[in-house]
Amino acid sequence: MPETENSPARRSIGATRNPASQEAILAAAEAVLLENGLNGFSIEAVAKRARAGKPTIYRWWPSQAALLLDVYHSRKHINFIFPDTGNVRDDLRAYLSGLLKTWREHTSGAVFRSLVAKAQGEPAALAALSAYMADRRAQSGEIIKTAQARGEVRADADPELMTEILASFAWGRLLTDRLDISDKDIDAVVDAVLTGIAASPSA
After folding, report:
1. What is the spatial distance between Cα 98 and Cα 94, in angstroms, rounded to a whole number?
2. Could you tell me which InterPro entries the record lists for this protein (predicted)?
């Protein structure tokens, strides 16, 4: 039987997340953010929309930033798999274009932009975002490490730093609402990075 606005609140089971309740809360959080904007986002509004108790939400997510980060994780549509095409240029191109496309075509871009905004004024949000980005740098850095193992990239190149340069470009586009980018521009950004780290051809 479908639930209505008059349906009873969803039951939780303490600290253990109930999958149905968790999904309802994440969906409600996404909807509240997209409809009301960051200034109108609150745990109270999420609880009301999800028919969940505020204590349950705070038990599972200690802050708005933690909740929004989980929304972002669950709504990326491509839970980003870093490419391994056998060629570093194609790998980096797929990484950058895939990230921009995900932000452009789905709600994850708006959610992530809100996370970045919250991090500017909230230490807890900044800590959550910093921890997330450290993990993403480690993952994306594997692209460069794989290329180093193939002999395409200099051994002294810092893998995480190189992919952070590409991610920073993507961030700039996201935060200024310029996610539409041509293949030519993507190629130019990737080539600019590779020019500095490509291994010298054997004599």
Report:
1. 6
2. Homeodomain-like_sf, HTH-type_TetR-like_transc_reg, HTH_TetR, Tet_transcr_reg_TetR-rel_C_sf, TetR_C
Show the tokens assigned to 91: 């790998």
Structure tokens at 199: 């291994």
What Cα–Cα distance (Å) separates residue 152 from each residue in 45, 78, 88, 159?
A: 51, 27, 7, 13
CA distances from 175 to 109, 115, 132, 170, 178 (A): 9, 11, 18, 9, 8
20-29: average pLDDT: 95
- Structural contact between residues 140 and 95, judged by C-beta atoms closer than 8 angstroms: yes
Using alpha carbons, select from 69, 67, 78, 65 the residue that is nearest to residue 17.
Answer: 67
Residues 6+ apart with CB under 8 A from 109: 102, 103, 174, 179
pLDDT digits (tens, 9 = 90+) for 120-165: 999 989 998 999 999 999 999 999 999 999 999 999 999 999 999 9
Q: How far does the chain reach from its first CA to its final CA, in angstroms?
A: 73
